[in-house]
Amino acid sequence: MNKQVIKDLLEQIIDSASLAELLEAASEVCHEKADHLETNWQSYVEADRWSNAAEAISRIASSEAVPVS
User: Fold this and answer.
1) Percentage above 70 pLDDT, the chain
2) What is the SS3 assignment for 15?
3) Cβ distance 51 to 34 under 8 Å?
4) In this structure, are residues 44 and 10 in contact, taking their beta carbons and an 8 Å threshold?
5) pLDDT tens digit string along 11-33?
6) Cα–Cα nearest to 50, from 22, 36, 30, 27
7) CB 30 within 8 A of CB 58
8) Which domain of life does this protein belong to (predicted)?
9) Separation of first and last alpha carbons in the chain
C-alpha cells in the first residue's frame, strides 16, 4: 500500500469519526501488537516498544491539541 492510499484512508476515517478516535484506535492496535509479541513470541523488547508507542499515542489523543470532532 502506498503512502497516498494510506493518507486517503486516514482522511476518510478522520472525516467520519475524529482525530482523537483515530489515535485512540491506533493506541489500542499498538497495545494488541505488544500483547501478541509478548504472548506468542516472547519478544519482550519489541513488545515494550509497542506498549511505549501505544502510551505516547494515547497521551497525544487526549491532549488539548487534538480536536475531538
Assistant:
1) 100
2) helix
3) yes
4) no
5) 999 999 999 999 999 999 999 99
6) 30
7) no
8) Bacteria
9) 27
